[in-house]
Amino acid sequence: MSGMGRRFFLKIASATGAAAACSPSHAPEMLVPLLNPPENMVPGKPLFYRTVCRGCGAGCGVTARSREGRVVKLEGSPDDPIGGGALCARGQAELQSLYAPDRLRGPLVRHGTELVPVPWADALAQVGALLGKLRGADGFVHGLRMLSRCEPGSTGAVQKAFVSALTPAAKARVVFEPRDLVCLRAANTQLFGKAELPVLDLSRARAVVSFGADFLETWLSPVEQARTFMAARSGADRPRLTWVGPRLSMSGANADDWLRVRPGDELQVAIELLRWLVDPANRVAHLAPEAAAIRAALPPSRMPQGISPEQIAHLGGELSVRRPSALLGPAALASGGGGTALAAAVQLTNFVLGNLGKTVLLGLSSEEDAPSAEEEVRGLLEEARRGEVKALFLHRADPLGKLPASARAEEALRKVPLIVWFGERLDATARLAQFALADHHALESFGDLEPRKGILELQQPALSPLWDTRASSQVLLDLAATLALPGIVDKDFHELSKSRWQAAAKALGAELDSPHAQRNVQARGIVVGRALAAARPLRLEALPWFLGTRVSPGDGLQLVAFATTLASADPEAPGWLREVPDALTGVSWSSWAELSPITAQRLGVKAGNLLALRTEEGATELPAVINPALHEGAVAVPQEAPELRALGAMGRAVRVERTGKTFALPLTGHASQEGRDLARVVPRDEEPKHDHDHGHKHERGGTLVPPHEHPKHRWAMSIDLDKCTGCQACVVACYAENNLPVVGPQAARDGRLMAWLRIQRSFESISPAAPAETRIAVLPSLCQHCDAAPCEPVCPVYATYHTPEGLNAQVYNRCIGTRYCANNCPYDVRVFNWADPVFVEPLQMQLNPDVSVRSKGVMEKCTFCVQRIRYAEGVARGEGREVRDGEVTPACVQTCPAQALVFGDAKDPQARVVSQQQDGRAYRLLEEVNTLPAIAYLARRGGGEP
Amino acid sequence: MSVPVAVAERMRSIDKSAEDTQQAPGLGWGALVALAVACIAIGAYSWSLIIRFGMQYTGLNRPVGWGVLITDFVFWVGIAHSGTLISAILFLFRARFRTAVYRAAEAMTVFGVMTAGLFPIIHLGRPWYAFWILPYPNQRHLQINFRSPLVWDAFAISTYFCVSAMFLLAGLMPDAAALRDGSQGLRRRFYALFAMGWRGTAEEWRHHGRAYLFFAAFATPLVISVHSVVSWDFAVSIVPGWHSTLFPPYFVAGAILSGVSMVITLLIPIRRAMKLEGLITMQHLDMLSRLVLLTSLIVTYSYSTEFLLALRGGASPERDTLLYRATGAFWPLFWLMVLGNCIGPLFLFLKRVRGSLLGLFAVCALVNVGMWLERFNIVVSSLEHNRIPFDWGAYHPRLAEIGITVGSFGWFFFWFLLFLKLLPSVSIAELKEEAAHDHHQEAAHAA
Amino acid sequence: MPREPGVLAVFADPSAAARAVRAAHAAGQRDVRAAMPAPFPEMMEAMAQPRSLIGAVTLCGAVLGMCLGLWLTIGTSVALPISVGGKPIVSLPAFLVIVFEVTVLVGGLSNFLGMLIGAYIGRRKRFMPADPRFLRDRIGVFLPGTSESARELLRAAGAEEVRDVA
Fold first, then answer.
1. Cβ contact C142:C150 at 8 Å
2. Lowest-pLDDT range, A132-136, A611-615, B15-19, B443-447?
3. How far C147 CA sits from the closest chain B CA (Å)?
4. pLDDT level of residue B181 (50, 70, 90 thresholds)
5. Which of A703, A792, A807 should we substitute to test contact with C (largest number of C Cβ atoms within 10 Å)?
6. All domains of chain A, ordered by start, with CATH?
7. Beta-bridge partners for A361
8. How far is CA B286 from CA A596, B96, B283, B366, in A?
9. Are A793 and B391 an interchain contact pair (Cβ–Cβ within 8 Å)?
10. Residue A701 has pLDDT above 80, yes or no
11. What is the ipTM of this complex?
12. Taking CB atoms and an 8 Å limit, are A762 and B389 in contact across chains?
């Protein structure tokens, strides 16, 4: 480098560093280490930012781990009472939507049929001009409407202000949440006079009955509910979970009892249960005084098909003694009178049993920005169809893609002259817009959120925007400025939201007087105040209305739309959610339609056959999957499937025919464990007592040579099958933490998915005679880090070996790819790189710098997140102490909502993992091969009698 | 005709027929070589795909990590077993019928090992690092894991190759010398190379004799060890269907069965094409076919033991795997294997079959197919049904693997065809020795 | 190779040649040399040569190989003690396979080299006139030093031709 002197070189170096600091999107190209790094940014040292997950309405707090200016991992925020430090699969996958290759990189404007890039200034000027033209003499734009997703915070406030400043029309802004529990809201309105959703505290529930509500995975606030329910389950008095419905969802898989009913008969079960409870003959104590009135209003008894009075009585008896309990329902996509009636019956039962205020809390759901009722959305479309909508603002709302085809949204929207669309990735609706304005991702934007009363979450950017995007609220403010709208004074959205959340925080009792205190709040990212559940009087006059409604399910096949934990069926979902197979069916990268074995046999259908489904609303084709945990009267389709739009909502009668075609369905996982008793169940009554040498029995289990010495640590894990819900948050977290490549549908068909950690589902006790006996067992399977690992001695080049800390290490650079270790692993947890991994720009920015990306031809597998172990050890060393128990958490353990996984040092007698491994239920997988695994499974408890 | 001249006559006729095999090749030979080269090209291209784009070009998956390539490896190692058996073990047993056939068998051994040796490299995920499996001093102080059966393989196979190659060369020296003096030019130099200055003096013969004996003594345990090691690739693992102490003898017997059958399948056309009927007589083939029958019976016994052991005593992964092997996705292959290895050879009890070239050829060809299938069944079905039912999968070979298999046959026959034309495919010296011996026997009888 | 004068006889029949060799020995001619296309037993025993030393060479080779194998397996494992599968650092049973193979390899190599060297020395040390026929269908017997008695003896044994080699 003759031309370049030392000083000049240093200048360049530091300049690069600075550049990297301002624009993280270039950080990976930084070649020289930072010589004078920007404040608090040290290469190789992670930074943690607190923000909030916008994946669903629950609003879990999030800690974003950032390396060299780019976010590499999302984890739950331990300070957050909702998520409680955990994050679900979808939350984990928010990262991939941040780095989505098809994200808008700047504003677009319609040019003929095309949407073409345009500078922000021009875009804003044009929108401003168009709005100006539409403005009448009174300064209003009559016929301006806004359709937005639920925004309980400053964003919503700005939108409301903007809309109300531009049009006098009431309800000009419609909140569009197609997945909202409309029925529950409607029922609460009827019964208690308020369109609200309950907040559940299942930690106190001694019995839970779910009428199709997938409350551990997707329903309401799943992470929180999984945590509280499983906390209760691990207690001495194990609450019983009863599942009522035609299909076992993953929550149903955790149930102790299954009332297997025809689709639509849930309502009948609920009413009969209610009848039993309020029947004086059964002498149920401590009922609400309104019981008599309710009994009077009940319709004549009619037992649903396939349910015996004894079953109802059994369930009723259980609920009468197990107090408080919680009844949940209906499913997310339940709709129409039936759904509302079911929701009402459920809530009424909760009321009668006195669960309200104990386990089912009302009056806590956020006042701000409640989703509008379905009618309002359809009303807006109707207006548009009549040509009354002149300008439509869409904020992350996709009526075209999300509403059933019967809503005829396209026809309506085509009539709107000006559509301004805000979002990250072009959706079906955006393709009709005049302006597609690229919005920040949640991780790039400021904001504040009130997910429920008493909780304020700060949305704070964890990295500077990747592309030329702008916060939609900022755009609205700018427009307001150009149009000189009255009543909108703020110019800067950041300032606005800051003043807003500070006010809210004060109201919650946080003190913000010193800048230091402010910084603390921001560092925590959350303010938690006190909020009490409100007691709601029952509106007796409402009873006849819904108790009168009768839905009589037809005799033919009925459509059941269910929510999947991941999104295999959703073409717009990020790769992780599409690739990780649906835990129940094992399908990835595709939509499907489920049939019960009986129905499939009747129709002569095999898995993968393409089915023609037809309802009165429309028809579509879907590949068949045989689900033993499905009622023969039902055809189940995932709610994310685009094909579902053609068929319309739940409860429709479906005609199913074979097309004769077959579809290569990416399907993984054998259905049964062939009686090998891998995922064990201990009946409640004969549960083995706590004994101390149990763990040791296997440690010493007849080895020719003395077992290993582990001088300092011996990392170990315990997995409680009684708590594991099979939600697969751990799987996605593993993908994120360990740079697992997404390999696509063909690889999935070939059985070459790269997951290190998998949920192995098996259907048990399947018999056509008693389909109601069908149970589902889940078994998280990962490298067992055996003391006597069969994979190690067979490797010719020492590419895998046993570390002094008890890890079964894999040296990628030494591996030559004989695949012998994988063959010899009795647990099948080793993964081979069949091809070089591909990370499409800019997805590679998510890669975790602490973990190397593997090339083709090498073997890989779970490392117990050795990089996280090293990090914790480093921190401990820095503070001159030993590693504390619970300080080291692999990604899977960290994110488990149910806290079924426990990790720690088996040599530390105080460690939780030790007591867990010595529990009476503890066993090792495949003990007969005597591999001395580091992982102990705790057998699932069978539900005993109440 | 006086006695001495008669002996010389016989010797000359042996030389003659040996030299005749070395005549300028005909069109048929050229066509065969061309075909072999074409097959090699197919194999090379198939492998290049795997090297460039990864193992995704095979049908392998999770849980089936080994498939056709490993099957080929075991198959070719098996083929490589007959030669040493015939030339070494039968030599120690002084079985005279070996003299006519052992040269061809030994050549087959060497080329078989050369073919087998390719597969452990081809099937690697990163074949360009194949040399890491050998112990060599390196600055990273990396060593190899001598506990791994794959390292045992590397040592066993290379040792086997060296020893059987030296064995072949030792036997070739006098014959090459004999041909050397009868030829000129390039050919002469070529033979001189293999003759290594052989002159046939009593001094040379006395060393040669001893050395040959020791080679036989070494090769005999070696040939047993090599296929035992190959069987340990499976037996040492804990995969149900692999993990069996029965494997070493079972595999050795199988190897001999496949090897001898291959010898017969090759000899029958060769003796016809090269007019060696005089030297390789029906009696030789008959003895070999008895060997086939014997080993086939051993193999049948092993199969039944394997199954009986697995079926005994309740449900177990072994049982499931074995039943799956016989009734699962590949059941036709399994029963074809039984037909080829167990039932077919039973016909060799009939002298009529042993006596008819066609029958013998058919039986042995079928055995070759059956033995390939045996390895395929063992490798694939066991992996498809491992211990975790959730991972039970299926394996279907892809074009690349089949291409490589075709290539391996091309590679083997390419060398074998060259050998037939360039070196004597019968042991001239030993035949002469016998000729003299026979002559004197006859003379004695006459007197 | 120093040419030596002597008498060379060519035989067509191994037993005749053997007779000649024995006769020569009987006549006190200890140094008899021969060349033949194959190691005819009667000839080899008539020659009554000392037993080849190859056995010793090969044995040394084999022992050397065994030591090499032990050193390689145990030595490297101790030099790089890596714990795999709960097996001891020195797992002899597994190593013995390697030891055996290396033993056979080195033993075989020394055997082969021993033979080549032995044959080479034999050719160099003891002159024997070359004749292509000795590799094909004739046996040559050579008695160093020319004497009428030798010629007689060879003819008597039934040599096809007897000539002096100067």
1. no
2. B443-447
3. 22
4. confident
5. A792
6. 47-83 (no CATH), 108-179+368-507 (3.40.50.740), 199-361 (3.40.228.10), 558-662 (2.40.40.20), 713-941 (3.30.70.20)
7. A199
8. 63, 13, 5, 17
9. no
10. no
11. 0.94
12. yes
